[in-house]
Each structure stands twice: as C-alpha cells, then as structure tokens.
Amino acid sequence: MFYNVITMTTITSLANPKIKELVQLKKASHRRQSQLFTIDGLREILAAQKAGVNLIELYYCPTLIKKWPKDQTFGLNDKKIVEVSETVFQKICYKEKSDGFLAVAEYKSLTLDQIKVSAQPLIVVLESVEKPGNLGAILRTAHAAQVDAIIINENQTDIYNPNIIRASEGCLFSQQVVIASTEETISWLQANKIKSLAAATKAIKSYTTIDLKKAIAIILGSESEGLSNNWLKKADGLIKIPMKSDIDSLNVSVSAAIIIFETLRQRDLL
C-alpha cells in the first residue's frame, strides 16, 4: 500500500458520478459555477496545501505513482482519498505524463483591501493577458522574485485553468492574486502611494533609467493589443524595453521577468 489507510474500493468505471464531475471541472464555466478546481501533480498539490488552499478530495493511481510522500494524507480523512484505475485517471488528469496524484480544491478569492504589502512593495498588474501559459510563467517569476501581489485587470482567463497551475509549477498558490477593474486598481495604488509604471512601446524612457527602488507597480498589457488607453493615460509613468531590431515588443512573460529582476538589481536584492 502507498499509505497507512487501506482503500476499500477502486473506481474503475468512467461512468462513475464522481469521475463525470471531475471531467466537468476541466471546463472553466463549471469551475466557476462550482467554485472547485483540480490540481494535477504531487508538487502542485503540496504547494497548494502549504499555501492554505482547502483540499476537498484526492484521487490517486497506484500504477502511476513512484513514491507516496511519507506519512502524507494531505489533511484528508480516509473517505476523501480515492483510488482509481489508470484508465480512469487518464480521463480525469490534465498532464500528458501525470505522476498519479490529482486533488480537488476550493477557489480562494482575495480582494484589493486584503493584499498585504511590504515596506517597499513591488506589484505586477496584468491587463487582458489571454494566454494561460504566459500568466503561469509570470506567477512563477513573481514567486522567485518575491513580488508582493499580482493584480489582474480585464480578466481573460480563469486563474485556476490547469495550464496556469502547470506553467506556474504551483506558484499560483503562494502568490497574492487579485482580480479587479482598472479603476479599482488605480485607486488602490494611489491610496497606498505606489507609483504605477506602464510598459508601452511608445514610451521614451528605458526601464533601466527609471528609479525602481521605491514602491512601484509594473503594468503590462495583453499579448496582442498591449495596454489600454486608460492605463496609458493614467499611469504615473511609461517605460519601455529597448529593441535592437524591428521587433517592437517581447512576450509579456519575458517582459515581466526583465523588469522585475531589474527592480531587484536596483534594490540590491540579487
């Protein structure tokens, strides 16, 4: 056995109601309606558990698991840990090469007023970012750099999209992520005396020439359209990443990483 609780039954049927419900959770509309989502992979599940995400159930497939974490029951009782066949697990998991662990968890929402900031905050604001992979990569970078919070304006994707969880390697769970309107975000930044710097191709000043030591928010736009006029007009300043060719911009996750780590360099945090 993989852990110290004996599983009485194994789900082998794809027609099982629990399995049908798990398959439905692959759809964003069903996740939002139920306020539940799945976490595919042991590393991501442990990251969620460490961050205080409420796990509801765990499904596992013995033939796919290499090793069960010692004395780990994920905070669940026996009835909430369910063994499934490999055929069933392949139906409910998202990864092509899953490690045999899949958890169901509750949505965890945060508001602007609940954000906890450091004495020298660094905030990242993302407007209309569409691709889950890009958002996940930014979350991973934000975790590595200890960014205070990620604020998402004009949200285009469910933050519990499996691709975001996978691309962030579970870092989604350790970050303060808030969905808010542009106007709400601007008001919150002003109230907290955080200077907003919008990345824009038409900006004159390079990101390396701006003082990034004080409380700042880096504002980044969508992959296809960039930032809205609302942000371009209301940001405290515009910055750009200079290009040495005819390409006018970089992938949004790359841009975020470049500016975030320049901020750390200026603050002598590298």
Beta-strand residue fraction: 15-25%
Please describe the biggest sheet, giving its number of strands, its sense, and whether it closes into a barrel.
6 strands, parallel
* CATH-defined topology of the largest domain: Alpha/beta knot
SSE order, one letter for each helix or strand: EHHEHEEHEEHEHEHEEHEH
How many individual helices? 9
Domain module count: 2
Query: What is the first-to-last residue Cα distance?
Result: 45 Å
Structural class: alpha/beta
Helix content: 25-40%
Shape: elongated
Please give the radius of gyration in angstroms.
Answer: 21 Å
Under the CATH scheme, the architecture of the largest domain is 3-Layer(aba) Sandwich
| Average of the residue pLDDT scores | 93
Sequence of strands across the biggest β-sheet:
8-7-6-10-9-11
How many distinct beta strands?
11
pLDDT < 50 runs, ≥5 residues: none
The CATH homologous superfamily of the largest domain corresponds to: SPOUT methyltransferase, trefoil knot domain
CATH class of the largest domain: Alpha Beta
What does this 3D model show about the protein?
- 30% of the residues lie in helices and 19% in strands.
- By secondary structure, it is α/β, with parallel strands linked by helices.
- The chain folds into two domains: 10-106, Ribosomal protein L30/S12 (60s Ribosomal Protein L30, Chain: A, 2-Layer Sandwich); 112-266, SPOUT methyltransferase, trefoil knot domain (Alpha/beta knot).
- Strands 8-7-6-10-9-11 form a six-stranded parallel sheet, sandwiched between helices.
- Strand 7, helix 6 and strand 8 form a beta-alpha-beta unit.
- Helix 5 (132-145) runs parallel beside helix 9 (252-266).
- The mean pLDDT is 93.
